[in-house]
Structures are given as structure tokens and as C-alpha cells.
Amino acid sequence: xxxxxxxxxxxxHPSISLVVCTxxxxxxxxxxxxSYEMVSTNLNWELVIVDNGSSDSTSTVLSEFxxxxxxxAQVISEPQAGLSRARNTGWxxxxxxxxxxxxxxxxxQSDFVDAVWRNFVEAQLDYLGGKVLLxxxxxxxxxxxxxxxxxxxPPGSFIESGLIHGANMAFRREVLQALGGFDEMLGAxxxxxxxxxxxxxxxxxxxxxxxxxxPRPVILHHHRRRTAAQVNSLMxxxxxxxxxxxxxxxxxxxxxxxxxxxWYWRSVLPALRSQQAAQKLLYELIGAFRYLTWRGSKCCASxxxxxxxxxxxxxxx
Length: 317
What we know:
Helix content: 40-55%
Distance between the termini: 43 Å
CATH superfamily of the largest domain: Spore Coat Polysaccharide Biosynthesis Protein SpsA, Chain A
Structural class: alpha/beta
Shape: globular
Oligomer: single chain
Number of domains: 2
Strand content: 15-25%
CATH class of the largest domain: Alpha Beta
Number of helices: 9
Largest sheet: 9 strands, mixed
């Protein structure tokens, strides 16, 4: 492995690229940026920050950070809102063999880069998820992953929603290239918020890639949600995204049987016994309907564009 470049020297072919997307969180961003500077490793690594159309002080904060930091970092602009779109922009502009993802309200433990790298070297994984701890005890204990034991995910595994969080996951570059990255119809900033991470990992497993959850790579999540209304709003958004993910999986011949069974056992059957579970299923069905509607609209638009082409040109589409 190449030694870590010092100061602002250029790093050639970093081992790991960490992609972090941000939108209108300039007043909180400094805390996350400080945690990146505390990373301790002998590996070459780079930080890729994607500014996803921010209109607050984010650009100023990032410019000041770039001017003073000693770590290899770059800021990329993706003006069209959407976390999946921003993540795709990030990894496509990154240089690392391993692409790790985190969020702008998360702080890395100092050994994060080494912990991620060890998993890919020792276990020859294709993708990885790590532990997500609650940073502030005053926040609701949600959007965290506290599992202490390693969990292997052989090819063809069912990927349970929440097992691997988008705030702490990593992929070999070839996996992202093979799958085309994140589905930009899903995720924060779209009408189908959530499950963009689960969808990508599910497609990776169905395509024959091998992964794992490992508790050694650790981040701390500072989500700042402290009221029941904030939590309920987030959970409803996740339910909608999960429904979109389920119906997308059902439409995929490689995932149809497994997804149908899991949806039945995890959502449909509980909904017959519990009002709370029934409400959860309702929002999942809303997400499924939205996905089918927008997918159908997209297909219709593509079909219309195709039919409007001169006949001699249609074969090339």
C-alpha cells in the first residue's frame, strides 16, 4: 500500500474514498468535518464531499475547510436535489478502489478507514456495513445499528431493511460500476425517501456479490430528532421508501420470490394483528403505488420519445 501523503500533497490512487453528501447543513457541518480530520491511518484515502444544491452557508464552510485542511479532499457540486443522485456523483468522481459512504450528521471514529480496509482485505468482501451509534443521548434512539457480532451476507441473501445503514457502508468500485450505482428514484430528496441503501445492497447480493455487516467500522449519528412528531415523520418516510423497494424487488425476477415472502411475513401478516402494523403497511403500499406510477410514467415517456424518432433511427435506442 502507498503511504499517506502529507499536507495537501496529491494522493495517487487512494485505497479508500469516503463520499459524504450534504444539503443546507452549513451550521452543523463543521462537527462532521472535524471528525474526518481526526482519522488516524497509514492508508491513502480521500474525502469527497458533494454539495447537493445547498442555498445556505454550506459552500462557505466547505471552501474554508478546503483552504486549511491537511487531508486530501475535494468538493463537488450536484445541483439537482436527491441523495442517491448526489452519491452517484460522488463515487463517480472518486478515485478509491473502495468507496465508503457516510452522512453529514455523522462522526467517524479515528480508526474508521483502517476498519473498513481490513474487512475488504481480510475477508475479500464486495460490500460492507458497519456499526452506527447514537452520538447524543438526548436524541431518540433511532437510525442506529448496535449489533455487536459480525453477520455474513453470502450471494443471494435477503437484505433486511436497517441491517446496513447508508450512513456506514462501503463497496468495491467494480460493484457500483456493475450495478449502475444508486437508484435515483429512491432516497432522501425524492418522493420515495429511504431504502436507497437497502435497494443497492439487495441488487448487489442478487447479482452474486458477497458482503457482511461488521461492528468494527464505527460512526456516531447526531441526527438531533427529539420529538415524537419528528420521529413519526421520519418513520413514515422510511415506510414509503421500503414499500417502493419491496415492489421494485417483486418486479425483479431474480428477487421476486424472496421479496414477496418477506413482505408478507414482515408487513402483511402483522398488519392483520396490529393497528400500528396496519398503518405501516398502508404507507408501504403508498410507496409501492408511487413507484409503479413514476416507473410507468418514465416508461411511457421513453416509449413516446422512441415512437417520435424516424423509423430508421429506432433500432439504435
